TrEMBL record:
Keywords: Lipid metabolism, Membrane, Oxidoreductase, Transmembrane, Transmembrane helix
Name by which UniProt lists this protein: Fatty acid hydroxylase domain-containing protein
PANTHER family on file: ALKYLGLYCEROL MONOOXYGENASE (PTHR21624:SF1), STEROL DESATURASE-RELATED PROTEIN (PTHR21624)
Species name: Stenotrophomonas maltophilia (Pseudomonas maltophilia)
Spans through the membrane: 12-35, 56-76, 96-115, 155-178, 184-202
Gene Ontology molecular function, alphabetical: glyceryl-ether monooxygenase activity; iron ion binding
Keyword field contains Cell division: no
């Protein structure tokens, strides 16, 4: 029991999380097999790179601990923002056709996500966001490689802001679902730039440039769905498909426990004058 009328079964939660992961895994395995059909052995070898277990443990921690916390937090947040003005805005959104409302929320949600993502690259939040960037063999499964603190702040900022706009819950969760699956896609190891459409939508190549280890591309491409935000605010960078080294500098990125606990130690160092500047932020 995690709240009034809210039961939490660990086994059921884990089964639900894994059953949701299997279709995603199957889809991307099939896509990888089609694209790399002449090198299927190489595809299998790349499925288990160094540090892959970090993604697995991150997924399990998220399913067993973070997801229930987020569920409770979203219920509490919904009740806390039930003000008169949000109710008035909710009445306004109710006049929109559902398909149009979904497009509006996708666009507004991506704008919120763009600025939240830029904030995550500032000194304090980067300590926790760095874990997501540490995967040197980025695949669709890298989307699950998030520090729990980063996951919590991401969801509460993104969904909290949409609640403040008075959007109904169904469209907020539909937006989260679409962004999740599109996020899986743009993290996949695909060279696609979309050509001219890349000026409207974020492509896998565009997001791959966001994950480069150093050099050109660092500090660029913060949007998830619409690339127009990066173009408007001067952070768009897609010269071609990305073949640059990915990840972050430093060690310990293939250790799950290091990834979880090191941000707190570094946060303590940053609070001391001698520690300022010890952690680079891309």
């Amino acid at each position: 029991m995690i709240g009034p009328g809210m039961n939490f079964d660990v086994v059921a939660q884990l089964q639900s999380a894994i059953s949701g992961l299997l279709p995603e895994m199957g889809a991307f395995l099939l896509l990888a097999a089609i694209i790399n059909r002449k090198d299927l052995v190489g595809v299998v070898r790349r499925l288990l790179p160094a540090g892959f277990h970090v993604n697995v443990f991150s997924f399990l921690l998220d399913a067993l601990l973070i997801a229930p916390l987020l569920a409770v937090g979203m219920v509490l947040m919904q009740h806390s923002v039930a003000w008169t003005w949000t109710g008035a805005m909710g009445a306004m959104w109710a006049e929109f056709p559902k398909w149009l409302l979904l497009l509006v929320v996708l666009f507004v949600g991506d704008a919120i996500g763009y600025f939240r993502h830029r904030l995550e690259h500032c000194k304090w939040l980067w300590l926790f966001h760095e874990m997501h960037h540490s995967d040197r063999r980025m695949t669709w499964f890298s989307l699950y490689r998030f520090h729990p603190i980063n996951r919590l702040t991401t969801v509460f900022i993104d969904m909290g802001a949409l609640l403040l706009f008075g959007f109904p819950l169904w469209v907020i969760f539909m937006n989260a679902l679409l962004r999740h699956y599109y996020g899986l896609f743009i993290h996949a190891n695909l060279p696609w730039t979309y050509g001219a459409l890349g000026r409207l939508f974020v492509s896998p190549a565009m997001h791959r440039w966001h994950h480069v280890r150093n050099g050109e591309g660092v500090g660029s491409n913060f949007a998830t769905v619409f690339s127009v935000f990066d173009q408007w605010f001067g952070t768009w960078y897609v010269p071609s498909s990305c073949g640059a080294p990915l990840g972050v500098t430093g060690g310990g990125h293939d250790s799950f426990l290091h990834q979880i606990f090191s941000p707190f130690a570094r946060l303590f160092r940053l609070r001391r004058p001698s520690g300022v500047g010890s952690d680079a932020v891309p």
